TrEMBL record, chains A, B:
Transmembrane segments: none annotated. The keyword Transcription regulation does not apply. The lineage of its organism: Bacteria, Bacillati, Bacillota, Bacilli, Lactobacillales. Keywords: Hydrolase, Magnesium, Metal-binding. Mg(2+) 1 binds at residues 70, 88, 91, 210. GO terms for biological process: inositol metabolic process; signal transduction. It comes from the Bacteria. Its cofactor is Mg(2+). This is Inositol monophosphatase family protein. GO terms for molecular function: inositol monophosphate 1-phosphatase activity; metal ion binding. CDD domains: IMPase_like (cd01637). InterPro entries: Inositol_monoP_metal-BS, Inositol_monophosphatase-like. Mg(2+) 2 binds at residue 90. It comes from Companilactobacillus suantsaicola.
Length: 259, 259
C-alpha cells in the first residue's frame, strides 16, 4: 500500500485544529453548566460528538482505512494490516471536566503495523505536536529537535497516579532514582512533555488510543516505547508501557518488577 | 501601623512583573547552558540575584518592613509585629531547572501577624495572582470570583510527592476520596490552581516563604489554610499544611492521621 506521510500529516493537523477550536468552546460551556449530572452528560456528549466527527472525516479522506477509537464509533479491527487510525477524542477527561486545561485530542496512524504518523493537540495551549519518522517532528509549524538522551537521575518522571501510589511494579524505586515525580493526568499532555524534554519518562496502563499517537511521535524523536515486560508492543490491546529516553527506559526496565 | 493594601498591591504587581521578565530570559539561558554543574550554579545565581533585587526594592519602598526570605538576604525576624514581607524568589526550582515552566515567584505581606497582601507570578504564563482580603483578588488586571466550595469527591488534589508516595499521615485515604491526584511540583503554581478551582486541595510541608503569599490569597478567596494538627498556622516556622475549600479541608482533617 502506498501512503504519503506528508499528506496524512497535513490532514491530521487540519483535523485537530478544527477539533481544538470546538473543544475550547466546549470547555467554556462545561465550566458554566450547573449540576453535576448535566456536566457529566455534557462531557460524554462532547467525547462522542468529537469522535463521530473525527472518524467521519477520516473515512471520507481515507475510505480504505480502519479506525480504532475509544467511544465505539470505530471498526472492529482484528489485525493491523493496511492503514489503521487510532482516535482518542478527549484524552485526560478528568482534566477536561475538573480544570478545563491539560487535556488533549490524539490521532495515531499505522501502516501494516508500523508507526507512520501521529498528532496530538494540547487543546487549551492550542499546540499541535505532529509528524513521524519519515517527515520529522513539529509543534504547529515549527520543526523541533529530538530531546537529549538524559539518564533517569537528570529528569522528571510522570507515572499514573494509581500505579505510583500503590507502588505497582516497584515503580517507586524508579521514581526515587529520578529528579522528581509529577502527575499531569493526561497521556497526550505528557507525550508533549517528553517530546520537549520537560519529562524523561512516562509509565502507565494505556489503551491503544491512549498510546498510538504518542508512540509514533516519541519513537520518531529517538525515544523508546516498551511494554513493561519488554515484550513487543501490541497495538490491539491495553498494556503497561514505559515511554522515555532510551537511557531512562533501560534503567527503568532493570528496576521494575513484573512478578 | 497604618498601611494601604491597594498601594502594596500595586507595588507587588510591578515588582513581580519585572521579576517575571528577568526569569523568562534566565529560563532560556538555563536551557542553553551545557554542563550540569554550570546549570546548577546558574540556577543558584538566578535565585540569589532575584532575592537580592526583590529585597532591596522592598527595603527602598518600605524601610520599616522586615523580610523573611529563602536565600538568606532577609532579616532575622523573631516576631510578626509590624509589616513583614515573605519572599520566595524562585518557587518550584526543579521545574525551573528541568522543564523551564510551571515555576513561580511569590511575595506575601503580613501586618502584625495578620495576612494582608499576596502576589504570585506564574512566570512562563506571565500571570500574576494578587490581592488580599481588603481589596479582592485579581489575575493581572482582571478581578476573579472565589472558587466554589466543592467537596473532596468533586475535585482534584495536589499532594507533595514524597508525602503521597510514602502515604504519610494516611494521605492516600484523602486522595482516594477525591476525583484524582495531581503533582505539579510548585506551591506557587498550585495556589494558582486552587484560586481558579482547578484543584480543591494542596497538602505539603511548607517553609514560611512557600506558604505566605498563597495563604493570604486563598484565605481571601474563602478557602481554609490549616496546619495538619489543626493548630494555628505559625508563619515563622515550617509545617505540614492543608489548603483547600473549607469543605475539603474539613474532610481531609477527619481523614489524616497525625500519630
Amino acid at each position: 500500500m502506498k501512503v504519503d506521510s506528508k499528506q496524512i500529516d497535513e490532514f491530521l493537523v487540519k483535523l485537530l485544529d478544527t477539533v481544538g477550536q470546538t473543544l475550547r468552546t466546549d470547555a467554556i460551556k462545561k465550566k458554566s453548566v450547573g449540576t453535576k449530572k448535566n456536566r457529566n452528560d455534557l462531557v460524554t456528549n462532547f467525547d462522542k460528538k468529537t469522535e463521530q466527527f473525527v472518524n467521519s472525516e477520516i473515512k471520507q479522506a481515507f475510505p480504505d482505512a480502519t479506525i480504532v477509537s475509544e467511544e465505539g464509533y470505530g471498526d472492529a479491527v482484528q489485525d493491523m494490516s493496511g492503514l489503521v487510525f487510532f482516535v482518542d477524542p478527549i484524552d485526560g477527561t478528568m482534566n477536561f471536566v475538573k480544570r478545563q486545561d491539560d487535556f488533549a485530542s490524539m490521532i495515531g496512524v499505522y501502516i501494516d503495523g508500523e508507526p507512520l504518523n501521529g498528532a496530538i493537540i494540547n487543546v487549551m495551549d492550542n499546540e499541535i505536536y505532529h509528524g513521524g519518522k519519515e517527515i520529522g517532528l513539529f509543534i504547529n509549524d515549527k520543526r523541533i529537535e529530538n530531546p537529549k538522551n538524559l539518564p533517569l537521575i537528570e529528569g522528571l518522571v510522570d507515572v499514573s497516579a494509581p500505579m505510583a501510589l500503590a507502588n505497582k511494579f516497584n515503580v517507586q524505586e524508579v521514581i526515587k532514582k529520578s529528579s522528581g515525580f509529577r502527575v499531569y493526568g493526561s497521556a497526550g499532555i505528557i507525550f508533549g512533555h517528553l517530546l520537549t524534554g520537560k519529562e524523561v519518562m512516562y509509565m502507565s496502563y494505556l489503551a491503544p488510543w491512549d498510546l498510538a499517537a504518542g508512540r509514533v511521535l516519541c519513537e520518531a524523536a529517538g525515544m523508546s516505547v516498551v511494554s513493561i515486560d519488554d515484550a513487543p508492543i501490541n497495538m490491539l490491546k491495553s498494556q503497561v508501557v514505559i515511554v522515555g529516553t532510551s537511557k531512562v527506559v533501560s534503567e527503568a526496565l532493570t528496576t521494575v518488577k513484573t512478578r
